[in-house]
């Protein structure tokens, strides 16, 4: 009998939050459509899922879902216009998002929290394990994360969450995990407790949950009976804590690579600047402007 857990092919991308940190932009535009250089943030996340072998993507959308659907759909008029002009590069870039994966949509009518958004995916996901990728968390493709998480799940089963060490004064902004070394050794730590946005000074560790999860479908059952927690929202962290306390296997993979929280304005700006600087087509010119700009700022009287 082969006991290796099946390869995960379904990914859920919750994108129904209100995005209040980006108001007024998010009044009519989902924050997931914010450009990071010249691609919307969510396209990087879909590309990451596809690169990890996921071919079936479910987006949980709310109001303002049209731009998301349009971005991953065909745009015949634009394609024809670019074809007529013979602009093959631009045509390729327009078609890339359409051809990435099989993308489905489900609506979360009320933004009742991340846990509730994940529960909206239950009919589509069924009884398979699945991934959750938060659309406002951008992981640099050069720093592997999902593949490490899949390896831990294949070895230890259950659910796996991505963790990142953050400063003590920032941990209250995240879900926080207490961990111990896994008895099996290797990559991955066993999670012993979880707290959503701990009160300052009460966090059990500096390990924050970041937006990548590989979940066993048993999470749906737990989410159905999870009451609203922090902020009156149904929290995914609370459901995972129920699994931990029931002795179910929940492991963490500690990530120390490049990650940008594009739902936060300052981080979003940093991500845009950094990725623009690294681009072959834009980087050299942009970087030399940036150097000049910083020099002038430093010289400017305060
Ligand atoms: P966040 O808390 O970062 O997103 O949720 P938010 O609520 O949209 O942002 P702010 O704090 O008001 O600026 C993490 C992820 O979960 C999704 C969000 O879209 C985001 O990708 N989410 C959150 C949902 O899909 N539904 C919800 O009810 C809440």
Topology:
Elements: E1 10-15, E2 35-36, E3 39-40, H1 41-51, E4 56-61, H2 66-71, H3 76-85, H4 88-99, E5 102-107, H5 114-119, H6 122-125, E6 130-133, E7 137-139, H7 146-156, E8 159-165, E9 175-181, E10 189-196, E11 207-215, H8 218-224, H9 236-245, E12 250-254, E13 259-261, H10 265-278, H11 283-299
Parallel strand pairs: 1-4, 1-6, 4-5, 8-12
Antiparallel strand pairs: 2-3, 6-11, 7-13, 8-11, 9-10, 10-12
Uridine 5'-triphosphate binds next to β1 and α5.
Describe the overall structure:
- The model has no long low-confidence stretch (mean pLDDT 93).
- The strands form 3 sheets. Strands 5-4-1-6-11-8-12-10-9 form a 9-stranded mixed sheet. It has a two-stranded antiparallel ribbon with strand order 2-3. Strands 7-13 form a two-stranded antiparallel sheet.
- It has 11 helices and 13 strands.
- With 302 residues, the chain is of the alpha/beta class.
- A hairpin with a 2-residue loop joins strand 2 and strand 3.
- It has one domain (10-263): Spore Coat Polysaccharide Biosynthesis Protein SpsA, Chain A.
- Bound molecules: uridine 5'-triphosphate.
- The site of uridine 5'-triphosphate has 20 residues, from strand 1 and helix 5.
- It catalyses: alpha-D-glucose 1-phosphate + UTP + H(+) = UDP-alpha-D-glucose + diphosphate.
